[in-house]
Amino acid sequence: MTTDIVTIERDLQELWKNNTAEAAAAGHSTTRALTLNLLARASSADEADAMGAVIQELTASHPCRAVVLIDQPATGEPQLEAWVQANCLLPAPGAPQVCGEQITISSRGGRAGQVASLMLPLLVPDLPVVLWMAGDQPFGHRLLGKLRGVLDRLIVDSAGFADPIRDLVTMAAFDAGDTPGPGAGPDSPALSDLNWARLTPWRELTAQFFDTRPFLPHLHRLDHVEIDYVAAGDGGLLRALMLAGWLASSLGWDLVDGGVSRAGEEISLRMVRPGVGAASGDTRPVTISLRPAPFDNNALVGLSALHMRAVDHVLADFSVEHTDSPTCARTVAQADGHPTVSRLARVERAGAADLLAAELRLLSRDRTFSAALQAAAGFARGIIVP
Amino acid sequence: MIDTPTLENPLRSGLRLGRTPEPCTMVIFGATGDLTSRKLVPALYNLTRERRIPGGFSVVGFARRDWSDDFFRQTMLEGVNDNSRSGKVDGPLWESFAAGMSYHQSNFDDSDGYASLRERLDVIDQERGTGGNRVFYLATPPESYPVIIRQLGAHGLNVSPNGGWTRIIIEKPFGHDLDSARDLNAQVLSVFHEDQVYRIDHYLGKETVQNLMVFRFANGIFEPIWNRSQIDHVQITVSETVGVEDRGGYYDQSGAMRDMIQNHMMQLLTLTAMEAPVAYDANSVRDEKVKVLRAVRPIAPADVARYTVRGQYGPGNMGGSPAVGYRTGRGINPESQTETFVALKLFVDNWRWAGVPFYLRTGKRLPRRASEISVQFKTAPHLLFADSPTNDIEPNVLSIKIQPDEGITLKVSSKVPGQGQIRPVTMDFRYGTTFGVASPEAYERLLLDCMLGDGTLFTRRDEVEASWSLITPIHQGWAAGPRQEFPNYEAGDWGPASADEFMARDGRAWRRV
Ligand SMILES: NC(=O)c1ccc[n+]([C@@H]2O[C@H](COP(=O)([O-])OP(=O)(O)OC[C@H]3O[C@@H](n4cnc5c(N)ncnc54)[C@H](OP(=O)(O)O)[C@@H]3O)[C@@H](O)[C@H]2O)c1
Question: Of A196, A250, B421, B493, which sits most exposed with the smallest number of CB within 10 A?
Answer without folding.
Answer: B421
